[in-house]
Amino acid sequence: MKRSAPFLFVGLLAATSCGSSSNLSAGAPPESVATAPLLLNVEEVEEAIASEYPEQLRRDGVVGTARLRLLVDTDGIPAEVRLLESSGYPQLDEAAARVAVVLRFSPATNSNGEPLRVWASFPISFRVR
After folding, report:
1. How far is it, in rounded angstroms, from Cα 55 to Cα 21?
2. Is residue 19 assigned to a domain?
3. 84 in a domain, yes or no?
């Protein structure tokens, strides 16, 4: 039996700078984000979604989107992952968090081109095609 591949929908909705620790301690506002992080490894993320999609939910046609809040570090790797909005299915939310560990981004930058740590909203959808 041919297995249906999940539909991948990933994208950054928003990015906000965390500021440096020196700026935060001085009370200065965080730096402006000139360039938001961009997903670099779409194929690897698609594979992770396919492997993490709970088999029973896939067979039952259960679909959903979990919206994650990621702290994307200056190296483009998520340093923190939080559930921002549930898919409505705890198993899909947990699978989305497992997918998040493979996400790799180009780092966000300020107007001088320097990398920034930013919080970003990122949806991961599980769909049966």
Report:
1. 43
2. yes
3. yes
Within 10 A of 23 (CB to CB), how many other CB atoms are there? 14
Whether 8 is covered by a domain: the verdict is: no
**Measured between alpha carbons, how far is 21 from 43 in angstroms, rounded to an integer?**
34
Give the pLDDT confidence of 58-81 residue by residue, as tens digits.
999 999 999 999 999 999 999 999
The DSSP line for 56-90 is: HHHHTT--EEEEEEEEE-TTSSEEEEEEEE--S-H
| Residue 1 domain-assigned (yes or no) | no
CATH number at residue 109: 3.30.2420.10
Q: State the pTM of this model.
A: 0.77
Residue 65 corresponds to which tokens in the numbers above? Answer: 């989107």
Residue 25 neighbours by CB distance under 10 Å: 9
In whole angstroms, how far apart are CA 54 and each of 38, 64, 128? 27, 12, 12
